[in-house]
């Protein structure tokens, strides 16, 4: 019997792609949704517990407000959890870590292979290029419906640069500059957020010195790239012991 994959939020834009990719690669056990609807022929479950009991792994790209409840439910049912939700806070992170003591969890702001290669390169550049000479700036653009800013992927790029520099992003972040901000501080990692149209996702990290600039850019043209990556991660995760994993573990980067 093939792996049964459940989709939390199956009627959403990402949920529909996830359902299609899961059905192509394994068995789609069904999903949950606020509307009570989903792709034709896909079983609908009343809550995350019911879905988890009929699934070997659950993929979750829902909303930050669901993280703690989903963490408890999936730990209770001992169901592996692929978490692509972004914008959650410190208490949610604690709930994820607690769940990972019981089940395997892979949490990532982006399941696209290309983005994760950018994260790896951003960390290496952050380590090699002196912060006093190379100003790091991250520019991202997404569709007009996106509710969190900067995006989870942009923040992940910032954390990668900060890790390369041996600092904490929270200590050097400069996001949403406005008004008379004064000169740029050495070591800042700046963020610019753009929203408009139906841009799937565009991220650029720039290291700019007085005599050169190095840029890394990733453009996503189709949300399916995130769905296919998440389903591949689900197939891998099911065979792992309890613990908290990232895309570097899955991609062996």
Task: Explain how this protein is built.
- This protein is of the alpha/beta class and 253 residues long.
- The protein folds into 2 domains: 4-111 and 223-251, Rossmann fold; 113-220, Dihydrodipicolinate Reductase, domain 2 (2-Layer Sandwich).
- It has 9 helices and 11 strands.
- The strands form 2 sheets. A 6-stranded parallel sheet has the order 2-1-3-4-5-11, sandwiched between helices. It has a 5-stranded mixed sheet with strand order 7-8-6-9-10.
- Strand 9 (201-208) and strand 10 (213-220) form a beta hairpin.
- The protein is elongated.
- The relative contact order is 0.16.
Under the CATH scheme, the architecture of the largest domain is: 3-Layer(aba) Sandwich
Strand order of the largest sheet: 2-1-3-4-5-11
SSE series: EHEHEHEHEHEHHEEEEHEH
Which percent bin holds the helix content? 25-40%
Can I get a quick summary?
This protein has 253 residues and is α/β, with parallel strands linked by helices.
Annotate the secondary structure layout.
Layout: E1 4-8, H1 13-25, E2 27-32, H2 48-53, E3 57-60, H3 67-77, E4 81-83, H4 90-99, E5 104-107, H5 113-128, E6 135-142, H6 152-165, H7 169-172, E7 173-175, E8 189-195, E9 201-208, E10 213-220, H8 224-237, E11 243-245, H9 247-251
Parallel strand pairs: 1-2, 1-3, 3-4, 4-5, 5-11, 6-8, 7-8
Antiparallel strand pairs: 6-9, 9-10
